[in-house]
């Protein structure tokens, strides 16, 4: 990623941190502040390891509360830590944008991945309350709710028949791919590539929204 950004004439900084650990996230933000002196955009796209396999998934009566807790920790706790640590940098300039990746399965659970979907629904609620409070500070909070992203470590076990069925439901007749979000994923009409250069343009008119991507 750093090499790709630099090859296009941009600058980049890669920092490794466990976002479920508040201390590591705080250290990461300190490094960002020291290197750039500002923070314009945060994209929370982390969740606990998961296997999107409708045939091998756990039914509700097989799903332990600890499984729910694992997904909550990977989705909500991670986002909480990042937002808490990022907020002082954004408040300093009275502006910023936070984008949280949720899931279209919240509104349309085509496959009942109980723990995963519940955690993403909680993240949506977290994002809405955050947007309600931070908007007055000049900080926008929005969600992007993509469908199945393939291939990834989590979706590689999704059966071909299921992928074809989901593909048939999308206007463009194709599933989302990782490179779409890394290089040109649309967020309220603004590409991720553009976010890097024009953070002030991202979601200016949409706050607390969850935008589904087909």
Characterise this structure.
- This protein has seven helices and six strands.
- With 214 residues, it is an alpha/beta fold.
- It has one domain (2-213): 3-Layer(aba) Sandwich (Rossmann fold).
- The protein has a four-stranded parallel β-sheet, with helices on one face.
- The radius of gyration is 17 Å and the shape is globular.
- The chain starts with a helix and ends with a strand.
- 26% of the residues are buried.
What topology emerges from the helices and strands here?
Blueprint: H1 2-7, H2 22-36, E1 41-44, H3 65-93, E2 96-101, H4 114-134, E3 139-146, H5 160-168, H6 178-183, E4 186-187, E5 190-191, H7 192-197, E6 210-213
Parallel strand pairs: 1-2, 2-3, 3-6
Antiparallel strand pairs: 4-5
Helix pairs in contact: 2-3, 3-4
Radius of gyration: 17 Å
What is the CATH class name?
Alpha Beta
Question: Please, what is the CATH homologous superfamily?
Answer: NAD(P)-binding Rossmann-like Domain
Task: Find the count of extended strands (DSSP E, 2+ residues).
Answer: 6
CATH names the topology as Rossmann fold
Order of helices and strands: HHEHEHEHHEEHE
The residue ranges in which pLDDT falls below 50 over 5 or more consecutive positions are 180-209
Q: What count of helical segments does DSSP give?
A: 7
Task: Give the end-to-end Cα distance, rounded to a whole number of Å.
Answer: 25 Å
Major beta sheet summary: 4 strands, parallel
> What's the CATH architecture name?
3-Layer(aba) Sandwich
| Helical/strand content category | alpha/beta
Indicate the mean pLDDT.
Answer: 79
Beta content comes to 5-15%
Quaternary state reads: single chain
Could you say which overall geometry the principal axes of the C-alpha atoms support?
globular
Range of helix content: 40-55%
What topology, given as strand order, has the largest sheet? 1-2-3-6
Counted up, domains total 1
């Amino acid at each position: 990623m750093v090499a790709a950004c630099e090859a296009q004439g941009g600058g980049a900084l890669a920092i490794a941190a466990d976002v479920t650990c508040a201390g590591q996230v705080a250290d990461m933000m300190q490094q960002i502040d020291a290197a750039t002196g500002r923070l314009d955009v945060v994209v929370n796209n982390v969740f606990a390891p998961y296997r999107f396999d409708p045939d091998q998934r756990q039914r509700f009566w097989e799903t332990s509360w600890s499984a729910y807790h694992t997904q909550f920790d990977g989705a909500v706790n991670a986002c909480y830590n990042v937002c808490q640590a990022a907020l002082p940098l954004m408040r300093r300039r009275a502006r910023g944008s936070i984008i949280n990746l949720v899931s279209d399965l919240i509104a349309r659970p085509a496959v009942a991945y109980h723990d995963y979907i519940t955690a993403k629904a909680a993240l949506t609620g977290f994002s809405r309350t955050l947007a309600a409070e931070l908007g007055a500070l000049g900080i926008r909070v929005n969600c992007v709710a993509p469908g199945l992203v393939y291939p990834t470590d989590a979706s590689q076990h999704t059966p071909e028949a299921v992928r074809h069925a989901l593909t048939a439901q999308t206007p463009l007749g194709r599933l989302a791919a990782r490179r779409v979000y890394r290089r040109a994923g649309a967020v309220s009409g603004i590409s991720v590539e553009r976010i890097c250069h024009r953070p002030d343009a991202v979601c200016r008119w949409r706050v607390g929204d969850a935008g589904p991507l087909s």
